Amino acid sequence: MSATTFEGTHPMMRDLANSDGTKTGGVVSLLKTVALVVTIVGAIPTAITAYHAWQYKVPFTKVPHRLAQYDLWMKNLDCQIEYKALDTAQGTKLDVGACPSTGDIAIRIESTDGKTTYEWIAYNELQKPGEEAPTNLIDLFIGVARADTAGQKSVRTAQAMEVVCQSLVTKNQLVRVVREGDKCFREELSPMRGSIDKREEVPCDTQCKAAG
Question: Do both 160 and 183 map to the same domain?
Answer without folding.
Answer: yes
